[in-house]
Amino acid sequence: MLNRKQKYFFLKLFSLFSIIRGYNVLIIVLAQYLTSIYILAPYLSVKEILFDVNLFMIVLASASAIASGYIINNFYDSDKDLINRPEKTMLDRLVSQRTKLSTYFVLNILSVFFASYVSFKAVVFFSLYIFGIWIYSHKIKKYPFVGNFVAATLAVIPFFAVFIYYKNFDLVIFVHATFLFIIISMRELVKDLENLKGDLAQNYLTIPVLYGNLVSKKILTFLCLLALIPSYLLIFKYNIGNMGIFFYGSIIALFVFVIMLWKSNTKLHYILLHNILKFIIFAGVFSIALINVNRISL
């Protein structure tokens, strides 16, 4: 049996895992490897990719930078989150602000250290990425449109680190990235609708705060229609194997999303919409393997 001190220690570890969104980081790591195996480097054997030390270091650098980004975002948003997510915020506050900042700097140093194993260009890439996350969390996220755009861009950049490593410039990769970018942009705007109360209290000039729910819903509907373009191209113009099933399912999910969107008027409704978009993203990660179901046996 654990004593009280040990229980508190593990509770703080769980709190830190919650702050860095450990489950999201693990999903991104998985996505980077699946993208490398099935999209970016299909000419290499699975073994070559899995045991590529340079790729492993890029993934570690990405994971460290992303985790540090969640910490600094949590640091700056602590007052807003206390209004929007009081239960989670109370759990997060088991970790002191000083510990958060210390962990933030350690993770950033580790990210640059891992990148230095690959090349000086990788060091510059991840240093700029870390700076971009900080300036977004500190300033940019409080402003409409540009905040949403930068947030979506920062979410996609870890995949471009792997893309640059393999120097694969096939157009299909950009079509995949465009679909992901649109879905993440939608998620960011839904989060703004979900967090409207806290944003108003803390003077965050988000799209819902400045222009209202109606304009936000119109933008989300437009983005849904925009997402149909890369979906159509990937289904009918490119050879993506059985992953086409995912895009058919995504079209159906987005159709349901729009119907629910125009009936939504409470925070619970927006949380459900947020979860639909998260499900599309997570399902998209695992469905990458459907591009070639026999690939893993090579």
- CATH homologous superfamily grouping of the largest domain: UbiA prenyltransferase
Task: Specify the structural class.
Answer: mainly alpha
- N-to-C terminal Cα separation, in Å? 46 Å
Can you give the mean pLDDT? 89
Assigned CATH class of the largest domain: Mainly Alpha
How much strand?
under 5%
Shape: globular
User: Under CATH, the topology of the largest domain is which?
Assistant: Tetracycline Repressor, domain 2
Low-pLDDT residue spans: none
Q: Care to count the β-strands?
A: 0
Describe this structure in words.
With 298 residues, this protein is mostly helical. The chain folds into 2 domains: 152 residues, Tetracycline Repressor, domain 2 (Orthogonal Bundle); 121 residues, Four Helix Bundle (Hemerythrin (Met), subunit A), CATH 1.20.120. Helix content is 80%, strand content 0%. Helix 2 crosses helix 9, helix 4 packs antiparallel against helix 7 and helix 12 runs antiparallel to helix 13. It is globular, with a radius of gyration of 20 Å.
